[in-house]
Amino acid sequence: MGLKIYINGQIVPQEDAKISVFDHGLLYGDGVFEGIRAYNGKIFTLDEHLDRLYDSATAISLKIPITKAEMAEAIKKTMKANNLADSYIRLVVTRGVGKLGLDPNKCATPQIIIITDTIELYPKALYEKGLDIVTVTTIRNHFSALDPKIKSLNYLNNILAKVESIQAGAGEALMLNKDGYVAECAGDNVFIFKNNILRTPPSSAGILVGITRNVVMKLATEMGVQVREELMTRYDLYIADECFLTGTAAEIIPVVKIDGRTIGTGKPGKLTLDLLKRYRDLTQNGR
Ligand code: PMP
Prior knowledge:
The chain is an alpha+beta fold. It folds into two domains: 4-117, D-amino Acid Aminotransferase, Chain A, domain 1 (2-Layer Sandwich), CATH 3.30.470.10; 124-285, D-amino Acid Aminotransferase, subunit A, domain 2 (D-amino Acid Aminotransferase, Chain A, domain 2, Alpha-Beta Barrel), CATH 3.20.10.10. It has helices spanning 24-28, 46-59, 68-82, 124-129, 156-167, 211-222, 234-238, 270-285, and strands at residues 4-7, 10-13, 31-39, 42-43, 87-94, 111-117, 131-135, 172-176, 182-185, 189-194, 197-200, 226-229, 242-247, 251-258, 261-262. A hairpin with a 5-residue loop joins strand 8 (172-176) and strand 9 (182-185). The chain binds 4'-deoxy-4'-aminopyridoxal-5'-phosphate. Residues 35, 158, 184, 187-189, 208, 210-213, 246-248 line the site of 4'-deoxy-4'-aminopyridoxal-5'-phosphate.
């Protein structure tokens, strides 16, 4: 397709955007990343994504060699080089080239990669029909092992969950934490409406604190809806009036079936669709 890629301060054709086989991002999944969207040439919630990227890096003792402002400039330059108004931006910071062996101190400089591309995670029809999801046996990483708040290049936990949901013929994988409470989906956060109250697992359930999640909670509050972050079991989801997932790529996608149980009417819920409309207004028009 001939994309232009930013790699360590240079914008090069995708064929020339290469990293070393000794990069610890590849060898050990040692690094961090972000997925960001731009709508009509404007990058949505850029500051929040940059904050999360730098926080993830801090958490794994990785010092990103450029400032947030420089990173923002680099993203804009890459978007411009690709002439993309609507795009999906993948920001990757790896530990860098090192020696074999885990020691991150043997890596010279972190590698910064920016890919700006187009993406559609789920087909359009699914937003009208709703998603069928299943609970998987792979539990979400325990925060004492690898905190899900860190958006790291080590995504095997999520991939193993996704593999299970694909094998089950479902659209997404619902992951529980080690105590059996609902955490999140493989690549999205989860919400329910019950008796007009919006509920989602708290960050202490062991989740990636989604930026779309935060925007949705704010929109719901503006709608006059009560929002609660609290622990939920699968039972709470099964008896929900409405259910949906949130993520930068997916935006807000209704869920109509969980583990074979029909949620609410079996169609995307009214409040969910209202939120989706408000979310799209915000991304398209900035309000
Ligand atoms: N949870 C996981 C595990 C994710 O990977 C993502 C991002 N794809 C999300 C939730 C949603 O986060 P955000 O809204 O910031 O994209």
